[in-house]
UniProtKB/TrEMBL annotation:
<comment type="function">
    <text>O-methyltransferase that catalyzes the 2 O-methylation steps in the ubiquinone biosynthetic pathway.</text>
</comment>
<dbReference type="InterPro" id="IPR010233">
    <property type="entry name" value="UbiG_MeTrfase"/>
</dbReference>
<keyword id="KW-0831">Ubiquinone biosynthesis</keyword>
<keyword id="KW-0808">Transferase</keyword>
<keyword id="KW-0949">S-adenosyl-L-methionine</keyword>
<comment type="similarity">
    <text>Belongs to the methyltransferase superfamily. UbiG/COQ3 family.</text>
</comment>
<protein>
    <recommendedName>
        <fullName>Ubiquinone biosynthesis O-methyltransferase</fullName>
        <ecNumber>2.1.1.222</ecNumber>
        <ecNumber>2.1.1.64</ecNumber>
    </recommendedName>
</protein>
<feature type="binding site">
    <location>
        <position position="35"/>
    </location>
    <ligand>
        <name>S-adenosyl-L-methionine</name>
    </ligand>
</feature>
<dbReference type="GO" id="GO:0102208">
    <property type="term" value="F:2-polyprenyl-6-hydroxyphenol methylase activity"/>
</dbReference>
<dbReference type="InterPro" id="IPR029063">
    <property type="entry name" value="SAM-dependent_MTases_sf"/>
</dbReference>
<dbReference type="GO" id="GO:0010420">
    <property type="term" value="F:polyprenyldihydroxybenzoate methyltransferase activity"/>
</dbReference>
<feature type="binding site">
    <location>
        <position position="54"/>
    </location>
    <ligand>
        <name>S-adenosyl-L-methionine</name>
    </ligand>
</feature>
<dbReference type="GO" id="GO:0032259">
    <property type="term" value="P:methylation"/>
</dbReference>
<dbReference type="Pfam" id="PF13489">
    <property type="entry name" value="Methyltransf_23"/>
</dbReference>
<keyword id="KW-0489">Methyltransferase</keyword>
<feature type="binding site">
    <location>
        <position position="119"/>
    </location>
    <ligand>
        <name>S-adenosyl-L-methionine</name>
    </ligand>
</feature>
<dbReference type="GO" id="GO:0061542">
    <property type="term" value="F:3-demethylubiquinol 3-O-methyltransferase activity"/>
</dbReference>
Length: 231
C-alpha cells in the first residue's frame, strides 16, 4: 500500500482536533476558502461528481459539497474519516467517505469523476507519482484534477519547516519531511506521464505580519496545479 504508517499514525492522533479552527489544523481552515475559490475558477462544482483524495477530516470535502457537488472523500486514516463522517452529519451535508487508497479506487471506478482533488497529501506518501496516476485514472476524459504540495528548495525548507514548524509554530514539529517535497517540474512530469495536461500553476504564500494567506504567482514554497485529462 502506498502509505507511510508513521504519517498515518501522526494524523490519526490529531484527528479529534481536525475541525478546531485554533488547533494544529488552523492553516487548513485559513487556506480552504482560497483553494475552493481557485478550484471554482476552473470548473463549477455544482452538480459534479467530485472525489477528494486524502480528505482527512473533510474540510475541503464539505466545502465542495456546499457548492452543490456530489462528493466522495477517501483516506487511509480511519480516525480522520470517523471525524469527517460525524462532522458531515452535524453539518447536514451528504458526503460519502471511504477508507481506501486512491490506487484501489482507481481500479474499481476508473473514469468516474468530473473533478478529483488531492491537496496537501502528495508530500506525505512514499510514491506520489502513483497517486497522481490514480487520480488521472479516476477522472473522466475532459475532467479536472487539482493538486497542491510543497516545493523542494532552500526557501521551502526555511519557510515550511524552520519557519512554520519551529519559529511561528503554525504546524506541529515533524509535520513535514523535506526529502518528500516535490518540485513543480517533477509534479508536472508525473501529470504528463499519466495523461494529464497542466493548465494552471499558482503559489500559496503566508504573510506572518498580517497572518493572512494569498494565492499568487510565487511557487517557491507552497503551490497548486490544475490539470485536465485528455478527452
Amino acid at each position: 500500500m502506498n502509505a507511510d504508517p508513521q504519517e498515518l499514525q501522526k494524523f490519526s492522533e490529531l484527528a479529534h482536533r481536525w475541525w478546531d479552527p485554533h488547533s494544529e489544523f488552523k492553516p487548513l481552515h485559513q487556506i480552504n476558502p482560497l483553494r475552493l475559490d481557485w478550484i471554482e475558477q476552473h470548473v463549477s462544482l455544482a452538480g459534479k461528481q467530485v472525489l477528494d483524495v486524502g480528505c482527512g477530516g473533510g474540510i475541503l470535502t464539505e466545502s465542495m459539497a456546499r457548492q452543490g457537488a456530489q462528493v466522495k472523500g477517501i483516506d487511509l486514516s480511519q480516525k480522520a474519516l470517523g471525524v469527517a463522517d460525524l462532522h458531515s452529519l452535524e453539518s447536514g451535508l451528504t458526503v460519502a467517505y471511504e477508507e481506501i487508497a486512491a490506487e484501489a479506487l482507481a481500479a474499481r471506478e476508473p473514469g468516474h469523476y468530473d473533478v478529483v482533488t488531492c491537496m496537501e497529501m502528495l508530500e506525505h506518501v512514499p510514491d506520489p507519482a502513483a497517486v497522481v496516476a490514480a487520480c488521472a485514472t479516476l477522472v473522466k476524459p475532459g475532467g479536472h484534477v487539482f493538486f497542491s504540495t510543497l516545493n523542494r528548495n532552500l526557501k521551502a525548507y526555511l519557510f515550511a519547516i524552520i519557519g512554520a514548524e519551529y519559529m511561528l509554530r503554525l504546524l506541529p514539529r515533524g509535520t513535514h519531511d523535506y526529502a518528500k517535497f516535490i518540485r513543480p517540474a517533477e509534479l508536472a512530469g508525473f501529470a504528463r506521464n499519466s495523461g494529464l495536461q497542466l493548465i494552471d500553476i499558482k503559489g500559496l504564500t503566508y504573510n506572518p505580519l498580517t497572518q493572512r494567506y494569498a494565492i499568487n504567482d510565487d511557487t517557491d514554497v507552497n503551490y497548486l496545479i490544475a490539470c485536465t485529462r485528455d478527452a
